[in-house]
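Customer escalation, tier 2.

The customer says the design service returned an amino acid string that "doesn't look like it belongs to this structure." They asked us to rerun it and document both sides in this ticket. The original C-alpha cells are below, unchanged.
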C-alpha cells in the first residue's frame, strides 16, 4: 500500500506523490517566541516529528522547514513590560525552545528561519501583490484585498459573503473590506521597525510564512502543516498571499493536527491546567509524552491528563522491559534482519495517513507475543521479531536510547521527586547485603520491605543486588 495522506484542501485521503520523485519538501508553522512552549505545542511538534521520521524511514530525502515568528504584538508587549528589547525576549525563548525540542527527542529540521531575518523577501512579496492589485496602502500600512482573490476560503471551506456577514465591526475602518488583513504595519513608538517602500514598519503575521516557505522550498512544495487552529485565518491567508503573488498553488498537501484539551477543558492559565513542556518533563519521561500522543490519530482532537501520561509511561516501560529481557536472554542477534511480515504490517498502518494508534497496537501485540515466547523458552524467530520491534519503535521515535538510559532517567526522576539521594538507597542495599551474609533473614526482609514501601524494588542477580523504581 502506497502512502496516503488526508489533504485538508480536498477533504479526502490522497495518494502521496511528491513533486520530485524521492524528495519531500515540507513546511510547518512554528511557534511565536514570546513565552514558554506548552503541552499543546508539544502535540503539534511531535505530530510532525513523527511524520518527518516516517518519511525519512520510507526512504525520502526530506527538506523540512519550521519557522520562528520573532516579531509580533505579544513579543512587543512583553519586551515593553520587561523594559527589554524584542531581540532579547525572542533569543531567550528560542534557546528555551531548543532545550525543549532536545528533551522531547525531536529531530532537528533542515532549516529554522526567523521572520526578522527575511524582511527583504517579505517586502518583495508585498510588492508583487501590489503589482497584481491585491494589496493597497493606507497611511503607511499595506493590506491584502481579500475580495480580489477569488479562491479565498477554499482551505477552510468558508465563503466570503458568509464571513463578511458574520464579521464583527472592525476598529480599523480604513480597510476596504472587514476581511482584509495587514501585510505591513507602520511603526509606532516603542516598536521595532524596518525601512520599506511604505515607510518604517514591520511585517504582518501571515506574510512571513509565505515569504520564507517560497524562499526555501519554492512554490509549489509538497506538504504544509500546522495545528488545526491555524487553518483559518493564518493558512487561508498564506494561500491568498502566495497564490495571489505567483499564480501557482502554494502546497500540494495540507495537514493539520487536532487541538488538545486538558482534562476535557481548553487549556488556560486561569483554569490552572496550563502546563509548559519543561514542567511536564520534570515529572515524566519524554518517551511517555510521545507515547501518549501516538495513541490518538494526529487529526483527532486529543486530551491530556497526568493520569493518561502516567499510563503512557507504563506502556513505554513495557517496551523497554521487553527489549532488555531479550538482550539478557543470550539470543544471538548478529546479522539479524527484521521480520518482513511484521514490517509490512507496520508500513501498511502508517501508510494509511500515519495511523499511529494502529501501528502502536501492532507493536504491543508483538511485545506480548515476544514475552510469551521468552516465558516458554521458544527462541526460534525471536531475533528477527525483536529486530522488527526495535525498527518499528525507532521509526516512531520511541527508541532513541537503550533500556539502561531509560531506567536511569526513571531512577533519577524518582529520586528527585522523593528528595532522596542515591547514596541512601545504596546504603540500605549494602546493609541488606550484610544481613544476608550474616544469615539475618529477618533484617534483610525488613530492609527489602522498607524499600518496597518507598517504591524501590530490590532484585538479587548473579551480578549482585540491583534496584529499580516500581
Amino acid at each position: 500500500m502506497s502512502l496516503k495522506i488526508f489533504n485538508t484542501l480536498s477533504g479526502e485521503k490522497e495518494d502521496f506523490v511528491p513533486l520530485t520523485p524521492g524528495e519531500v519538501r515540507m513546511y510547518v508553522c512554528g511557534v511565536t517566541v514570546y513565552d514558554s512552549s506548552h503541552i499543546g505545542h508539544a502535540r503539534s511538534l511531535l505530530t510532525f516529528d513523527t511524520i518527518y521520521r516516517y518519511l525519512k524511514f520510507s526512504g525520502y530525502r526530506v527538506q523540512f522547514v519550521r519557522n520562528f515568528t520573532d516579531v509580533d504584538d505579544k513579543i512587543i508587549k512583553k519586551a515593553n513590560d520587561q523594559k527589554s528589547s524584542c531581540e532579547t525576549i525572542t533569543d531567550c525563548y528560542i534557546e528555551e525552545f531548543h532545550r525543549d525540542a532536545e528533551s522531547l527527542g525531536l529531530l532537528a529540521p533542515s532549516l529554522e528561519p526567523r521572520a526578522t531575518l527575511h524582511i527583504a523577501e517579505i517586502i518583495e512579496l508585498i510588492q508583487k501583490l501590489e503589482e497584481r492589485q491585491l494589496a493597497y496602502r493606507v497611511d503607511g500600512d499595506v493590506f491584502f484585498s481579500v475580495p480580489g482573490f477569488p479562491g479565498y476560503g477554499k482551505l477552510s471551506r468558508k465563503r466570503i459573503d458568509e464571513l463578511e456577514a458574520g464579521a464583527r465591526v472592525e476598529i480599523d475602518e480604513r480597510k476596504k473590506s472587514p476581511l482584509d488583513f495587514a501585510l505591513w504595519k507602520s511603526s509606532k513608538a516603542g516598536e521595532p521597525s524596518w525601512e520599506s517602500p511604505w515607510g518604517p514598519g514591520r511585517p504582518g503575521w501571515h506574510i512571513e510564512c509565505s515569504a520564507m516557505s517560497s524562499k526555501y522550498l519554492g512554490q509549489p512544495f509538497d506538504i504544509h502543516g500546522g495545528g488545526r487552529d491555524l487553518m483559518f485565518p493564518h493558512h487561508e491567508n498564506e494561500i491568498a498571499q502566495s497564490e495571489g503573488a505567483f499564480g501557482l498553488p502554494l502546497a500540494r498537501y495540507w495537514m493539520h493536527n487536532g487541538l488538545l484539551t486538558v482534562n476535557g477543558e481548553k487549556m488556560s492559565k486561569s483554569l490552572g491546567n496550563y502546563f509548559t513542556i519543561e514542567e511536564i518533563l520534570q515529572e515524566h519521561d519524554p518517551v511517555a509524552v510521545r507515547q501518549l500522543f501516538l495513541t490518538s490519530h494526529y487529526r483527532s482532537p486529543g486530551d491530556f491528563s497526568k493520569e493518561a501520561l502516567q499510563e503512557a509511561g507504563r506502556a513505554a516501560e513495557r517496551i523497554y522491559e521487553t527489549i532488555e529481557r531479550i538482550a539478557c536472554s543470550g539470543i544471538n542477534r548478529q546479522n539479524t534482519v527484521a521480520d518482513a511480515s511484521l514490517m509490512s504490517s507496520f508500513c501498511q498502518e502508517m501508510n494509511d495517513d500515519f495511523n499511529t494508534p494502529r501501528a502502536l497496537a501492532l507493536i504491543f501485540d508483538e511485545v506480548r507475543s515476544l514475552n510469551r515466547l521468552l516465558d516458554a523458552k521458544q527462541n526460534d524467530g525471536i531475533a528477527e521479531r525483536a529486530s522488527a520491534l526495535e525498527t518499528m519503535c525507532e521509526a516512531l521515535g520511541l527508541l532513541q536510547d537503550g533500556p539502561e538510559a531509560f531506567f536511569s532517567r526513571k531512577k533519577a526522576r524518582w529520586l528527585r521527586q522523593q528528595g532522596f539521594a542515591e547514596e541512601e538507597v545504596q546504603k540500605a542495599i549494602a546493609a541488606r547485603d550484610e544481613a544476608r551474609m550474616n544469615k539475618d533473614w529477618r533484617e534483610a526482609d525488613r530492609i527489602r520491605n522498607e524499600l518496597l514501601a518507598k517504591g524501590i524494588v530490590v532484585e538479587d542477580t548473579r551480578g549482585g543486588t540491583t534496584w529499580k523504581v516500581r
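Tier 2 assessment: The sequence is consistent with the input. The chain has a mean pLDDT of 93. The two ends are 42 Å apart (CA to CA). Sent an explanation to the customer and offered a walkthrough call.
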